Amino acid sequence: MKKIFDEVRSLDKRAIEEFHLTEDILMENASLSLKNYITKKFKINSSILIVCGSGNNGADGLALARHLFGKFEVFIYLSKDSKTKIGKLQEKRVKSIGVNFVNEIFQADIIVDCLFGTGLNKELDENSVSLINSLNSFNSFKIACDIPSGLNSLGQVIQTAFKADITITMGALKTALLSDIAKDFVGKIKVATLGIENELFQAQTNKYLLEKSDLVLPLRDIQNTHKGIFGHLNIICGDKIGASIIASNAAFIFGAGLVTIICKNDKIVPSHIMQSKSISENCTAIALGMGLGEFEALKLEEILKLNIPKVLDADIFYNPLIVKYLDENIVLTPHPKEFISLLKLTNIADISIKNLQENRFLYVEKFCKIYPKVTLLLKGANVIISQNNNMYINTFGSQKLSKGGSGDILTGLISSLLAQGYKTLEATICGSLAHALASKNYKKNNYSLTPKDLIKEIKKL
Q1: Membrane-spanning regions, if any (predicted)?
Q2: Taking the model in full, what pTM does it have?
């Protein structure tokens, strides 16, 4: 896992006060990180247009130009005169060695965005909007310094934003780079070192970026076993059997020893999946909500009362009964529309999907403060997983997963791990990572992924 921070000014201040670095040293290392990336990736004499603003983000760009000058064709476009003391010093330095300043932007081999940093907190003026849109229209390789210009500290787009192929962010990952909205603008994300190792530079946090190494697969390393050792998952079937079958197949291939679909009447199910009209005596986890539809309230409450690990999904988030059971160790896996219903049922907020999507971290944090035992997974372009005060972000998913049945597979994976004895947070993190990484490994076109394809990829992890 990598640490994530809502703001980094306090980290800069700490580096200056505790480690005796200076603003100039931090800026030199920031610009050197950009320079090192460019020199490794691009041919000597490539043309580079560095677009600078009037603040310290622009000063980073001016310092970068000085480091690149002599090996590349470097041009600086200064959108406004430097306002900061260090910015004026960097401008003086770069002019002294003869770097070209230009009055118009153009399509260079590489464009570096150094217009606005993480401190952007107001609407852009017309000239800035026009400038960013023009830069986006160029067929250049685009690098954002620290954060793509136009994204604010909450990861919201203010009118428009620079679309980067890579964002080289300074010192630490920022929450703003990991919003759903930001995903179409940041490209790849690389963290630059600012004069001391990032482990020293970074302080404590409660937000983390998940990595591939955080996935713990349910590998069977003991020979003397039987199916009962690996848990018995019960999946509650409502109006739509298809969702339960998809979830049961995913759970079965992810290690659950036994999987039973609980339904009122006999259905046609895969031969390896059992079915019953009541909860199994040896049930070790329950998955509930997928395809639930109109389900008898008394029976639903009987199931919710059971002291068995549960994953709740889909239709259950529209049922007021759920509010009575949010003080338990359960996993919730809503998509945005379902989450705003849950927020309304719990009297936390009555908001639109747009409001939620612009403030996903805020509302997840609010919910989990009130219900600290719950493990919440909010689906999206970047999945947010939270329990109590800690938050984990999974960025491995893609548009491939925007298909019916994908969420049922996720529920199957998480509930399978719960059945096998994983804790709720561990099961949610590992199920989410397996789900996203399997989709990432799917090599055919990004619109063709089916639940069957995804299950095949999960088998290969």
Answers
A1: none
A2: 0.94
